User: What shape does this take?
Amino acid sequence: MATQTAVLAKPDRKISSQTGDRIARLTALFFACLLIAIVVLLLYELLWRSEAARAKFGLSFLASSEWNPVTEQFGALPFLYGTVVTSLVAMFLSVPLGLGAAIFLAELAPVKLSNALTFVIELLAAIPSVIYGLLAIFTLVPLMREYIEPFLKTILGFLPFFQGPVMGVGYLTAGLVLAIMTVPFIISVSREALLAVPREQREAALALGATRWETTWQIVVPYAKLGILGSVFLGLARALGETMAVTMVVGNLPAVHAGLFWPGTSIAAAIANEFSEAGGTVYPAALIELGLVLFGLTIVINGFARLMIMATTKKGSKR
Amino acid sequence: MLARRKFVNIVMLSLTGVCTVATVAVLFLILGALIVHGASSLSWNFFTKLPAPIGETGGGMANAIVGSAQIVGVAALIGIPIGFLAGVYLSEYEDKKFAAIVRYIADLLNGVPSIIVGILAWALLVVPMHGNSALAGSIALSVMLTPIVTRQTEQFLREVPLALREGALALGASKWKMIATVVVPAGSKGIMTGMILGVARVAGETAPLLFTAGLNQYWGGLREPTASLPVMIYKLATGPYEEWHQLAWSAGLVLIAMVLTANILARMILARGVSVPRG
Amino acid sequence: MIKEIVTCGVLTAAVASIACGQTKINASGASFPDPVYERWFADYHKAHSDVLINYAPIGSGGGVKGITDGTTDFGASDMPMTDQELAAAKRKIYHFPTVLGAVVPTYNIPGVTQELKFSGSTLAGIYMGTIKKWNDKALEAENPGVRLPADDIIVVHRTDASGTTFIFTDYLSKVSPEWKSKVGAAKAVSWPTGLAGSQNAGVTGLVKQTPDSIGYVELIYAIQNKIPYGVVKNSSGAYIKASMDTVSQAAAGVSMPDDFRVSITDASGKGAYPISSFTWMLIPGDIPDANKAKAIHAFLAWMLTDGQKIAPSLDFAPLPKPVVEKEQKQLAMLGKGAH
Assistant: This one.
């Protein structure tokens, strides 16, 4: 059919197809530009609307622990600290767990089982944050308060990390929830990085007499390390920006404490809790400045993640 | 020494299995908890009635369910076309450097924390409109939806074999006709998957709706504060009343059922086609 | 996908057609009176089905912000707007007291079922972090006969800008000079210690779920959630339990200024409950939409008569008669379009 139309309507079609092509290209280009416009707009709004706070506090904003809406003195330190601590706790737990599962799925499990399990695990990534929060409030927090935190306190209480009032909410609980939320990303991306390692590498190691584990740990994993690292950064970026699950179990105390049992806060939690009623000019500007800091942080981390994952795909396709 | 190495081998490999089981178990625990706690108050009332004041029974979450449908629906209407066309551009019309920028921007947007997107929508809509609205919530969600659709569209269009394209061009089709009638349909399964997954993802987002669509005890509207399932779950779970907690469980069950169904559906559509390279 | 979009469209159209012809009013503010406001708005809607008042109990700070920015049609706050806030509003805002309520210290101490006694100094000490454990000497002295555990006290306060916080800190500032200088009274203060929840509901939830905790909430929240609350020593030295009667006694002696902005914490009067307060609706003098203005004024008239009768069933004390009459005069003036 296309052939007939092509043969019959040649001259007209050429012109109309040229215009058609031009229109199509411009339309697609326009929408691509729209994406850029959105990001530019975002940056603009974040910068402009935080002006009042940035002018007032300057760089000391990042180092100050004060958060006083009455005297309009604001500092980002407790929020930055909380964001980083909860994310680090999450990574500390989810990376070993995720890497372990990724190794199992990539190296040990038969293909069908591996695919099925990966599918199930990726479903975990699709569960909304607020549902993790819901479960955490009613099941995890009592568990932490009644059993886990007292247990950790008795055994490891001499470490500065395992100190603080046992309330069930706090940095540790938030970190735990974040760990569960980031594990699927680690597993998914690491598994693919591991699968991309050429067979020859494994076979060579096994031929030399290495055990399965030794092959995996000393040959395959290092080969895939860029991709794995990429997955870690991906998970980290997700943890840094996570709002609902954290704000529901972190305790919402704007202060800095070393003990993980202490309630704390995070940038996203602060914005979620206080933005609606932040009155005046400096208060909302301070919250938006917090948002700007978080935005910058996630861009940088995501950037690293992307670089690493891109490097892996290049490496994998080299063979 | 060999024995020790063999021992380590078995222990470590088993541990990896344990890790996997633990992770998978979490999913089932979550589902289980939601079903156990939430199924009991799923009733006709739940789906059809408005929330009742504290102390009265028989209330439901009809407004939140419809509200979510409204907000997500409009977000899809906005985000899907933009994302799709941007994806088409990236795949079909590469102007090397510019396309690289656009791709980077799409990835960047994908990684922006949802609450920051909420701030953007607040600045753009809530402030000039002097109030919360479903539209503001939709705009926030569409900003999150667009990069997801862009990436998926680009990815699946790229996979359409060169032969197919060249064939169309050889038959005399113009570029846009080739794209519209050959390439896009060829990649349609993956693209649709991307759209479904993207919509499912934004349907569960809470943070961007907190100060854009807000809440409403009654029906909302495009220019009015509108209740949504995720925000209601947040409010109900963090309150003191037992009835609220019960409603939160049920709402959570409904939400997760919707999201998981969409996800499973999408992957089933895809499974009939090519396997998905993620990233 | 298409199906979903069509369903949305149909539903929106259906809802829009139902909603047409209705006056929709958006309000936000204090969570302190939320139980009675919710009841009022629901009952009013039953009687006047063309008026829908959507109230978001996001805290008094949010209520003041909403009315200042113009994002809501009216606001609600447990703390009267300060001169600064009124100046920032750029339009005339009228205060209408609605009910009287009480802020109670509610606690969750495993093993303690008795009613605890608190004084201004012990409450200030707990919230300043100087009284750290439940079996502190000061608390034991005030509560002979009660076995208080040696556990750390977990203090709960608000995350949001709250009128309830203002009432509580206003009281603490009046009875503790140390509190006044170190922390002060406001909707949001720099808390020396503690966990935080959003709105009265959030604090109640935290106290309910956290053993060894103490929080300050409006009376009805403690009652509805069946958590114990303590009695507080008033300025005459008597330990008073919060109730409609004791709250009304706190309001009895006060002379109401013309703009209705007044504080009744630490009131004199033998049987007065010391942490009592009015709560206000913040009504702009110039509501641009005539329908909304009419509806709001009609609601206020209903609130001052029928509404007052409903309040006691939710443990809020109705307004004293002279206050009601004064408000009706203000309402009449508003209705005539005075600015």
About this structure: Residues 36 and 314 of chain C are 6 Å apart (CA to CA). Chain C has a mean pLDDT of 88.
